[in-house]
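Example for tutorial group B:
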């Protein structure tokens, strides 16, 4: 709001307010320039967030290893540390402490950690990073660390939830270790991180009253709220929080802002998210559960999150805050009365379109079937209306900044459309334009986009999408190769629920596939299929694609390769009935540019009609072929 008078008289105020949650946090990192952290800290205090205050000890990734630093114990007690799958305890005094996993089944590990902590609390030993006056935070390294020694494997209860991680859970072992520490230090908090292999609450373990838990559901859907009955994944997240709350009153529900985690890497596309709607629906539920609060992790990426941090702060203070009124107040004050409501309409339209999807995801490259060229053209009317509104500065400059964000989303849709046509040169140029828009936004305000200090003040890393697309240009129409024939956008498709396909020889050229359905090979099958039930579960299992391609005579007897843009999670290929190769299992969140398959099919191709059969195994959530493919000549 722009004041119209020099002095504003405010009447005497006498207001007492109590927040609905004691813990109200949104921790951002990746600051560039570093002084933005101070600006953000001041803002947090103004809107009622707890900035720089810890209510429980922090259980950061890798804090578990701090209990027994490798520099002190690796040589004398290697048995304290985890064994890998090959049967070796690869630990050295120089091992990075944040990457160090302990052997939790070894009673000596817990005893040594307790003695170490006693010395630290007594002031007899230098403090370690996981210890504060409140207690100690412990968490294994990031990823899926696990000790494969005989005792740890025997101690495992073999709870496997493949829709979360392709490894057995270790909540029971982790919590049993924590209970030992909690009993040794009853006047201190022992903080746990329910993340990765520890996200699911343990079975058969009673937690002492001095254990606190922060829940980090990294694989949860960010398109739907926890009260949406058609989203099994987000609903389960809320149930997980509730189960932990039954075990301890000291529960903090954590998450990510932005929720589409690909923005933290070079291939992030910074598309609009719907954290506002999600938290508006979930905050009252979390309050009713009786948890201590919410603490999200994030980064400066306001072109995606928009005003979500502000609305989140208001809801943490009052779960019944009128979100629509808060939004109207912001838009009219920040963009002007006329333009503001058009800007609001654009953001609301993006929110509503994401909510309609039956797909469940937390990566921006998996919403390309939602943010389409048709949709972005449709909502461009709000951009035009905002730009045509009568306004003065600084409103006009703010509207033009918003228009850059809208143009960026339009380019996101255009990039994917060009890629679906295998027009990689055009797609790469569009990706380059998107990077230029992000640079402009970073120049306007460093809170819009994640910067990189190693690229200079306000620097941005090279766009990973453009680099990948340029690589594809080089093997389809460049110095490294030439495209021979594209894989059809639509191919024959059949689910293989009972794993019959190989023994029934579905890969043979003369196999009758006339009764098969068809599937678009640019989108995963989850992006195309209706859910399996009213809870939104999708199909997990085997699926087969059969594509017919015609190869020109002049390509025969030359080095030929089959490139598939993405396989989620695992794939096998046959060419004209001959087995051609395998792509190992990869998690779908490895990233859009890490799921490809590129194999040599020289000698298996003939002139004229050829049948390519592709078997895909999907064991969790998103699955199928992705980003189409082609045969190319090197």
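The residue assignment follows.
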């Amino acid at each position: 709001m722009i004041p119209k008078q020099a002095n504003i008289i405010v009447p005497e105020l006498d207001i007492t307010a109590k927040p609905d949650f004691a813990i109200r946090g949104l921790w951002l990192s990746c600051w560039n320039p570093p002084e933005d952290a101070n600006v953000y800290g001041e803002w947090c205090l103004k809107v009622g967030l707890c900035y720089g205050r810890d209510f429980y000890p922090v259980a950061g990734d890798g804090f578990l290893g701090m209990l027994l630093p490798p520099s002190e114990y690796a040589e004398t007690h290697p048995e304290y540390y985890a064994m890998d799958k090959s049967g070796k305890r690869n630990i050295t005094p120089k091992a990075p402490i944040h990457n160090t996993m302990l052997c939790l089944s070894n009673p000596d590990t817990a005893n040594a950690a307790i003695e170490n902590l006693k010395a630290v609390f007594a002031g007899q030993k230098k403090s370690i990073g996981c210890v504060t006056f409140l207690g100690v935070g412990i968490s294994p390294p990031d990823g899926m660390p696990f000790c494969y020694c005989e005792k740890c494997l025997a101690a495992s209860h073999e709870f496997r939830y493949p829709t979360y991680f392709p490894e057995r859970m270790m909540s029971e072992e982790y919590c049993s270790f924590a209970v030992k520490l909690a009993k040794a230090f009853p006047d201190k908090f022992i903080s746990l991180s329910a993340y990765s292999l520890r996200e699911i609450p343990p079975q058969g373990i009673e937690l002492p009253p001095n254990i606190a838990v922060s829940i980090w559901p990294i694989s949860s859907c960010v398109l739907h709220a926890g009260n949406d009955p058609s989203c099994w994944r987000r609903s389960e997240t809320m149930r997980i929080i509730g189960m932990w709350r039954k075990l301890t009153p000291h529960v903090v529900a954590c998450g990510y802002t932005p929720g589409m985690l690909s923005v933290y890497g070079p291939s992030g596309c910074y598309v609009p998210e719907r954290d506002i709607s999600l938290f508006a629906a979930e905050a009252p539920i979390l309050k009713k559960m009786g948890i201590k609060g919410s603490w999200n992790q994030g980064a400066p990426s306001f072109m995606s999150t928009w005003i979500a941090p502000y609305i989140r702060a208001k809801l943490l203070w009052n779960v019944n805050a009128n979100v629509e009124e808060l939004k109207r107040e912001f838009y009219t004050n920040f963009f002007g009365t006329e333009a503001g409501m058009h800007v609001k309409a654009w953001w609301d339209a993006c929110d509503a379109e994401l909510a309609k999807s039956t797909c469940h995801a937390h990566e921006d490259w998996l919403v390309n079937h939602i943010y389409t060229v048709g949709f972005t053209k449709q909502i461009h009317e709000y951009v035009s209306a905002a730009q045509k509104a009568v306004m003065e500065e600084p409103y006009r400059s703010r509207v033009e900044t918003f228009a850059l964000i809208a143009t960026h989303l339009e380019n996101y849709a255009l990039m994917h459309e060009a890629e679906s046509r295998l027009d990689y040169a055009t797609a790469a140029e569009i990706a380059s334009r998107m990077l230029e828009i992000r640079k402009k936004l970073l120049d306007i305000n460093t809170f819009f986009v994640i910067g990189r200090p190693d690229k200079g003040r306000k620097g941005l890393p090279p766009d990973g999408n453009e680099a990948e697309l340029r690589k594809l240009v080089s093997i389809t129409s460049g110095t490294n190769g030439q495209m021979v024939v594209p894989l059809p956008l639509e191919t024959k498709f059949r689910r293989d629920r009972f794993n019959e396909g190989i023994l029934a020889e579905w890969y043979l050229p003369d196999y009758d596939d006339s009764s098969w359905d068809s599937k678009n090979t640019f989108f995963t099958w989850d992006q195309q299929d209706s859910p399996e039930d009213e809870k939104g579960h999708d199909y997990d299992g085997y699926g087969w694609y059969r594509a017919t391609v015609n190869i020109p005579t002049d390509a025969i007897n030359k080095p030929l390769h089959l490139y598939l843009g993405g396989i989620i999670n695992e794939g096998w290929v046959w060419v004209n009935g001959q087995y051609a190769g395998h792509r190992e299992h990869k998690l779908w969140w490895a990233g859009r540019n890490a799921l490809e398959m590129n194999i040599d099919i020289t000698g298996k191709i003939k002139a004229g009609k050829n049948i390519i059969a592709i078997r895909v195994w999907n064991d969790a959530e998103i699955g199928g072929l992705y980003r189409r493919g082609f045969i190319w000549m090197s």
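The CA atoms of residues 157 and 249 lie 25 Å apart. Compare this with the pattern of hydrophobic and polar residues in the output above.
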